[in-house]
Amino acid sequence: MDVNRRLLMAGAGLAAGAAAVAATPEARAAQATTVDPSRRYPPGRPGADYRPVTVPNGVQIPFATRGDVKIAHIVIGEATQRFAPGLDAQIWGFNGVGAGAYLEAVEGDRVRLYVTNRLKAPTSVHWHGLILPSGMDGVGGLTQRNIEPGETFVYEFPLVQHGTFMFHAHHDEMAQMGLGMTGLFIVHPRRPRASVDRDFAFLIHEWKIRPGARRPDPNEMTDFNVFTLNGRVFPAIDPMAARVGERVRIRFANLSQQNHHSMHIHGHVWTVTETDGGVIPETARWPETTVLVPVGTTRTVEFVAAYPGDWALHCHMLHHVMNQMGHGAGNMIGVDDRALQARVADLIPDAMVMGGAGMGDHGAHIEAGHMAAPENSIPMVGLRGPRGYIPMGGLVQLLQVRAALPADGKPGWYDNPPGTEARPATPAELARDGVVVDPRRDPR
Amino acid sequence: MRRALAVLAPAALAACATAPVETGRAISARVEAGIGAPAPWPRSEEARAQQAAAVAALLAEPLSPDAAVRVALLQNTRVVAAFEALGVAQADYLEALLPPNPVLSATRLTGGGAPAKLSVSGAIDAIDLLATPLRARAGGATRNAAVATATGEVLRVAGAARAAMIAYIAARQEADLLAQAADVADAAVDAADALYAAGNTAKVDRDRERLFAEEIAVQRDLAVAAVAAARERVNAALGLQGSAAQSWSAAARLPAAPAEPLDVAAVDARALASSVDVAVAVGAVEASRAVARKSWIAGLLPGLEIGVERERDGGEWTSGPSLSLAAPLFDLGGRARLRAASALRRDAALAQAVSAEVAAEARARGAEAEAARAAAVRRRAVMAPLSADVFDGAQRDFGAMQISLTQLLEAKRQRLEQGRALVRATRDYWMAQAQLDLLLAGVRGATAGADTAAAPARAPEGH
């Protein structure tokens, strides 16, 4: 059966439920769709009908095809999840993953989603951004009764749009979403208008885990200290890689509890092409280097990986690029920490007083064992980079652009071509350009 | 009569010379059995010199509570005073053994040209003479009470010395910990000063640290003063004066409380068996009983005196026995019998009360000592490691920027406070144990510290 025949497969539309999502022409115009909900389509095939998305470190919930229906089994339960070496979290999630599981299907697919509740609490699952029958919307108490512990519910609906969507618990939201019951739902267009070479997706989440504890505190409202991309914190997340000239799509989805995130790309300019409401008309797009991803939305950006190098991509909310930043240390900037260190050395020999010139070295000291930290914690821990310690964590990614990529797709650190890397200025250069540096003001 | 006096007098004199010494040895042995240290009674210059040398040797080393007890028993002159009281009691006892002295009279009558008329007579209080065994029994009971009282005095000296030294060592440990706490608080002030100087905190934040440090400094100074006072209580309890009072040193810390539970089985029976107060009370009852019997006899024949009389009226001597008796017209002897009988019943009732009190106090002391031991063991075996873990956690929180330097220093101070609590718990246990040991040795109601001014035992009345 060729594609056209498959697309034109006769039938009563997308079967039961299709009528419920057969929108008016005005409504259809507002959503991204390339299918006719009154028609029936064969299940989309990865590699044939769509290019699978790359979700770094994400865990796919697989579909099985029975007839013309795609079937998935989602199991909700508690699990231990490694956010990074040194930090495990006791989460509630989907198929063992908190804020890192994803579903992937194709516009026109009919999906049947079995949801088994292994929690001790009732729950429900909402399919965020998807057009579907009201009774499948998953709001506990409103559109359905809750899924009680031990019960398995079935959701079934056609996918009548494409884009980047999400799914999450919609009962006791603060606790259940706060503990990780969020996921990505990627729906590819049945008839893509444009293709990309790299398609990445990230689900952003935030948590409060007291250093030394394991279970995130869902009661937290403001002081979040762990920020994850697909359930991992930088640097424990796989970097993105692309060849020079490739078109790259990055899908950001934010189901944090409270915070929006301003995701910023270095060395490139991108365009926001889609939201979870649909495709932005080309005439309405504008170039950006930072896209704000509010809570409860998705933003899709596209750009050409034009410049070789190791480029940082990170949230520009400053406390979102630190791992387990603690706010109890007080403001030590400008304090003579060495003098204080000497003062308390006899009283508390193991205490390492620092912060007089900032906390940039903190993570390195933790990693080196110079100062003890609570068990199961990674306070301020970052990454030892090729040219020094990178004290960033949390919502940070790397885009590695190379002229060519190795077979495993991992190019390693970038070697800047000679003359293209910042370095200490020489006295001759300073003199040449008339730059006067007063050695008496050397802070060392 | 003469023969009887001739027999009694040397025996009494011999008893007078030897009984206190033997009794003193017995008391020393009993004290050593009860609290583990002898209480010698130096009776010669040589013995006193030996004791002084022994005291000097003990004082040359850091004193433990046990060593303090040994020093006190050798050095505190309250011990000598207690032994000398034995001589007083022995004299009273010997006095009770002797018959009443006879009353002799002689009369010469002249006048009227008649030859002088001579009359000589001798009489003795017959009731008192007949009651000599009863007086001896009462005297013996009183002497036994005095021995018990002396034993109690010596034990109290030992108990006061032990308690004073326990209190001193604990006070010094507490002062050391408070000195460290004050140093920690001063470091917190330095940190607050540095933060304020850098413009990172408000003046009030710094001032809070300063105020807190001053509070700790006050506590430290009071603790230092308490050490000095505790040292003087040790001097008083050990009987130390002059350079000896200044030069001694003490053990660095109190030993840990024993891990095994105390044996407090039948502690009330053990305390009753050795109780000085019970012995004194029983002695009082025995003495009162003898007095009551004597009163009964005296009531039958009030004022009975017997004697002999010889008279020369002219040239011939005539002689014959005499007897006199008070005519019971007004005093029928009832008052004396009432007094004696009431005193006996009163003393018997008091003896029962004392027994009940001693038994109850023994059970209470046993329970308190065991509770104090368990608390001290829990603090050392469980809470001290936990406190170390808490402080380690605070250091880790500091490493994770969860707490500030001043908060870390506060955690250090709290750890020191746990140390103080352990010192106090250990002190309380050893104090309670000392009280229990003293009670089982025979003395109840001994207070902590150097309170050696125990009330003297009440002497029985009526004889």
Molecular structure report:
The complex is a heterodimer of chains A (444) and B (463). Chain A has 6 helices and 24 strands. By secondary structure, chain A is mainly beta. Chain A has one domain (3-315): Cupredoxins -  blue copper proteins (Immunoglobulin-like), CATH 2.60.40. In chain A, the strands form 5 sheets. In chain A, strands 11, 12, 14, 16, 17, 18 and 20 form a 7-stranded mixed sheet that branches. In chain A, a hairpin with a 2-residue loop joins strand 2 and strand 3. The longest helix of chain A is centred in the C-terminal third of the chain and has 8 residues, at 337-344. Chain A is globular. Mean pLDDT of chain A is 92; it is low at 1-15. Chain B has 463 residues and is an alpha+beta fold. Chain B has one domain: Outer membrane efflux proteins (OEP) (Up-down Bundle), CATH 1.20.1600. In chain B, strands 1-2-3-4 form a 4-stranded antiparallel sheet. The two termini of chain B are 23 Å apart. Residues 1-16 and 448-463 of chain B have low confidence and may be disordered. Chains A and B meet through helix 4 of A and helix 6, helix 11 and helix 12 of B.
